[in-house]
Amino acid sequence: MRRLIIITIMLLMATAAITVVYFKNLNTPGLHAGQTMRSIPDNAAIVFEFNNDDGFYDIFKGNKLFASIIGGQQLNDLDVLHKQLLANPLIQKFFTGQNAFISCHPSKNHTIDLLLTIAATKELKPSYIDQLTKQTNKGLLVTPVLYDGKKGYIIYSTTIKKRFYLLTKEDGIYSGSFSKDLIDQCAKYIPQKDKQIFLELPEQQNSTSLANLYINYSQLNPLFEQVFKNKNTDIFKSFCLLPALAALNLNFKSDALLFTGFSNIQHNQAADYLSLFAGQQPVSNQLKDIFPSTTAYSICFAVSNPKKFKADLSDWYMKARLQHEKDSIFNKVKAETGINLITEFNQVLSNEFAVVTTRYMEKFAIITLTDGSAFRPVMQNISKMTSDGIGQLNYNKLPFFLLGNAFSQFNHPWFMIIDNYLILANSETELKSYYDTYINRKFQSKMLQYDQFDNLVAERSNVAWYINFKNALPILKRDLNDEFYAAFEYNEPGWKSFYAASYQLIAADKNFYTSFCINLNQVDSTTVKNNHR
Known about the structure:
Blueprint: H1 2-26, H2 33-37, E1 46-51, H3 54-60, H4 64-70, H5 72-86, H6 92-95, E2 99-106, E3 112-119, H7 126-130, E4 140-147, E5 150-157, E6 162-168, E7 173-177, H8 180-188, H9 203-208, E8 211-216, H10 220-227, H11 237-240, E9 244-252, E10 256-265, E11 283-284, E12 295-302, H12 306-319, H13 323-337, H14 341-348, E13 349-358, E14 363-369, H15 372-381, E15 383-385, E16 391-393, H16 398-403, E17 414-418, E18 421-425, H17 428-439, H18 448-454, E19 460-461, E20 463-468, H19 469-479, H20 482-490, E21 498-508, E22 511-520
Antiparallel strand pairs: 1-2, 1-8, 2-3, 3-7, 4-5, 5-6, 6-7, 8-9, 9-10, 10-22, 11-19, 12-13, 12-20, 13-14, 14-18, 15-16, 16-17, 17-18, 20-21, 21-22
């Protein structure tokens, strides 16, 4: 028995020793992804991570998906940089197999700058980089410089005729960009140990993923301010207000990019509207089937428990100090009409409601009801009717206080009820347009390519955002900064190569399982399905 105990203790000691060595090797500066990512300046909204090896480059070599997203010229610049710098025989072995990060940062010049961050293995000595300055006929001119007192280099590529600014940081981490301003900012940046900028994946999950996408929702608004000249655009507004961090894994298809993972709400910050849906259960999305075929973009909300949602929404108004205004409006409705509108509405609210924008810049709120006929007299009594079925509400801000800030754009709307759907719009003309769509079944769900795209997205969600790039073109032309719109319309390949994109939040343990999908145009994009659903 004593011998067995001694053998067991020796095995445990050996296992412990091997474990320590294993994790020590995992956490070397060249391999620890979290340490590298924390060196990225905190104004980054989006970070794309991939493994710097030939396998990754072979998969995406000549791939239209990435060329369309980044732009053909930018992708070519990065490819040349990889071949001339990271694949340079002097330093290649120190960077091969390491995690590389490309982050997006807002610029002072109303553009978006890219930052490449990568950690070398600990064997790399600064003198090896210095040897690049002595190379000739390699297509690179390397000049040592200082950035805020930190060692760096200006690398001029004679192939693409551009300067690349490279910064040497602590722990063998290197940051580089075609923007000197961004490198200067990076040199001055000091990470805050107690501040989480991105949601980090477990090392084991990170090591098995082909590529990852990290999102800091709170930094999306500064990024979009560079892209849009219309500062009031609502295209992705709700997500910009979400206090959350996302980490998504890439699932690769030849004609689509699928990212899935989690968005974790930062509960130490004030809750926003989208956070209310984290307390629900995922719901099968049906309302999108009656969106117009002209839909440019939409956001659809789904709740498994409408009563709980309304209770959470009421609590949110109170925390936002809007309770007094809310009470004043509904007390006025009750005094003038005798209708307790909140009670009446809550009794018929079903589990889906959405805001839809069409290519003609029409906006509709579409709300599912359990009994449209029962709610019609209520709406008629608080509205000025122009016909039996259409009227304009007599009170302002009712949609906002009934369903939340996603509906604030319907301040004094017109309404109609078709079957069990309450439809709101900002003009009678828009309502009649949707009526024509509904009666004649001119829905996006009847389009073949939409059906193909819809098969890629999750069937159940609580928040589902969608954009059709072709239909959104007139709105983007109006709202995008000229430089970004020109790139959108004229780059080939470019964003117009895509058919649609979807971003879904699916409630899971008070946070969100998250799915992002974007796919390329197919050959036949306007065919109408013969078999209606």
